[in-house]
């Protein structure tokens, strides 16, 4: 029996997990000529019935392949649809998180750039020191930029969500509150550094994640979730990545295969996404989406995570989304994972010996805390979104006036330039001042 205090501290989080939307230009630019539009509309309508039943969505996790060929026009349509999906599901627009998939890579840009092809080949063909090769290529100004050339349109799309990548930050991380004393730290991994090699389709296994992305430094009272587009069998280092994530990531989300699955172990749950819009030529055409409800309950050594997975797949006749059932003919997959409280208080929240949250106010997160992860707060993400809505000249002026970028960094691609600036604003406790300057320019 949980105490009244413990019950009062419980919090449920509902996550919408979608992947492989494949907005394809020019078809997606004209709604009347888009053959995938009807499936997305049915998904929206079905999701509305689930929101009415389960409550509003707290975050939308997009597992890659937003676009079809990394075309900026595809991302424009994708942004409009995702914002509508957020509004209809009761999710804040700032709580959309994305990672790149192989279809988010501009393979034409890679095929035309010998510097990119050489950098990818140098990493892929290194057998014994591949991690060192990746680190060296990323650290070099020219080759680091070349490796991410195919991600340019994705980065422009993802920057307002603070989900862009650059050579010194090839994955992102953001925190969401699971309870007053527990945070969900979402790590957006990049499995596409070697994707589109020589401008061609990927083969299995040919992609690389590396230990640079799987360290997942343990933090008291933080639950790690990873999002990665490619499953392990598509990775050169798949076995190593799987072993690392199974030890360190309680929640694991994958896309790419269009196979909707949920797998649970004693210490983790892993989800595979169905594609929102798979190819209509696939033998089993099964669009799908997942809703995942996570709840923290109990206290002290008895604290646990309760996970409910609702998986829905499309049927063609009659056209509708229906639940995927368990072997017991239930509509929900249920799992429980032990998550004992750490003895070291996290985020300045005092914890009593009985596991209850103390009454003292928690101090503000300081620069000693992971500033990038702390950018996941609703207030911070709102500032990020508004900052990116400004004209480029206004963003530049604010960043320079606050000393968030150097004059040398003005030449960097904007997603990298201002991504660094926003993290520095958090580190230096300048987000409030940045918000004031954003508001001044919004009022013009």
Indicate the topology.
Elements: H1 4-8, E1 11-18, H2 37-54, E2 59-62, H3 72-88, E3 96-98, H4 107-112, H5 114-124, H6 130-139, H7 141-147, H8 152-158, E4 172-179, E5 182-188, H9 211-214, E6 222-228, H10 238-248, E7 251-254, E8 261-264, E9 269-272, E10 288-297, E11 304-316, E12 319-323, E13 333-338, H11 371-374, H12 378-389, H13 392-401, H14 414-427, H15 431-442
Parallel strand pairs: 1-2, 2-3, 5-6, 6-7, 7-9
Antiparallel strand pairs: 1-10, 4-5, 8-9, 10-11, 11-12, 11-13
Helix pairs in contact: 3-8, 5-6, 5-7, 12-15, 13-15
In short:
The protein has 444 residues and is an alpha/beta fold. It has helices spanning 4-8, 37-54, 72-88, 107-112, 114-124, 130-139, 141-147, 152-158, 211-214, 238-248, 371-374, 378-389, 392-401, 414-427, 431-442; strands spanning 11-18, 59-62, 96-98, 172-179, 182-188, 222-228, 251-254, 261-264, 269-272, 288-297, 304-316, 319-323, 333-338. The chain folds into 2 domains: 4-338, 4-Layer Sandwich (Purple Acid Phosphatase, chain A, domain 2), CATH 3.60.21.10; 371-442.
Instruction: Give the class from helix and strand content and strand pairing.
Output: alpha/beta
Low-confidence stretches: 1-9, 350-368
Biggest β-sheet strands, sense, barrel? 7 strands, mixed
Radius of gyration, in angstroms, nearest whole number: 22 Å
Q: What's the average pLDDT?
A: 91
Count every beta strand, where a strand is a DSSP E run of 2 or more residues: 13
What level of helicity do the residues show? 25-40%
In the CATH scheme, the class of the largest domain would be Alpha Beta
Looking at the overall shape, the CATH architecture of the largest domain is 4-Layer Sandwich
The third-level CATH topology of the largest domain is Purple Acid Phosphatase, chain A, domain 2
Order of helices and strands: HEHEHEHHHHHEEHEHEEEEEEEHHHHH
What proportion strand? 15-25%
Write out the CATH superfamily name of the largest domain. Answer: Metallo-dependent phosphatases
Helical segment tally? 15
Q: Return the domain count.
A: 2
Distance between the termini: 57 Å
**Which word captures the global form?**
globular
């Amino acid at each position: 029996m949980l105490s009244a205090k413990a019950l009062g501290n419980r919090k449920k989080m509902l996550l919408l997990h979608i992947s492989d939307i494949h907005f394809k230009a020019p078809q997606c630019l004209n709604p009347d000529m888009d053959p995938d539009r009807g499936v997305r509309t049915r998904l929206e309508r079905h999701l509305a019935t689930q929101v009415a039943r389960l409550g509003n969505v707290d975050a939308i996790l997009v597992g890659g392949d937003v676009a079809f060929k990394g075309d900026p026009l595809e991302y424009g349509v994708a942004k409009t649809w995702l914002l509508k999906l957020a509004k209809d599901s009761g999710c804040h627009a700032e709580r959309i998180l994305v990672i790149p998939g192989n279809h988010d890579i501009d393979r034409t840009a890679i095929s035309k750039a010998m510097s990119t092809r050489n950098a990818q080949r140098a990493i892929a063909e290194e057998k014994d020191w591949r991690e060192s090769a990746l680190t060296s290529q990323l650290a070099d100004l020219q080759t680091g930029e070349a490796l991410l050339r195919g991600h340019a349109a994705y980065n422009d799309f993802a920057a307002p969500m603070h989900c862009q990548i650059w050579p010194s930050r090839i994955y992102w991380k953001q925190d969401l509150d699971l309870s007053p004393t527990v945070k969900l730290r979402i790590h957006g991994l990049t499995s596409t550094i070697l994707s589109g090699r020589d401008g061609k389709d990927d083969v299995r296994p040919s992609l690389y994640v590396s230990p640079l992305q799987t360290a997942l430094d343990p933090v008291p009272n933080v639950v790690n979730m990873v999002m990665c587009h490619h499953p392990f069998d598509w990775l050169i280092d798949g076995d190593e990545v799987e072993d690392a994530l199974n030890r360190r990531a309680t929640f694991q989300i994958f896309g790419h295969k269009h196979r909707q699955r949920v797998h649970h172990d004693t210490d983790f749950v892993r989800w595979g996404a169905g594609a929102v819009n798979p190819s209509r030529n696939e033998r089993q055409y099964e669009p799908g989406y997942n809703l995942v409800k996570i709840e923290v309950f109990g206290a002290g050594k008895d604290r646990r995570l309760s996970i409910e997975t609702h998986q829905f797949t499309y049927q063609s006749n009659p056209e509708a989304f229906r639940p995927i059932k368990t072997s017991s003919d239930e509509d929900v997959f249920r799992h429980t994972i032990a998550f004992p409280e750490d003895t070291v208080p996290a985020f300045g929240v005092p914890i009593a010996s009985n596991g209850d949250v103390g009454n003292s106010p928690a101090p503000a997160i300081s620069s000693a805390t992971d500033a990038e992860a702390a950018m996941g707060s609703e207030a911070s993400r709102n500032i990020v979104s508004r900052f990116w809505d400004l004209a480029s000249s206004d963003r530049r002026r604010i960043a320079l006036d606050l000393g968030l970028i150097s004059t040398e960094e003005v030449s960097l691609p904007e997603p990298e330039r201002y991504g660094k600036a926003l993290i520095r604003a958090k580190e230096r406790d300048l987000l409030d001042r940045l918000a004031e300057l954003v508001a001044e320019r919004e009022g013009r």
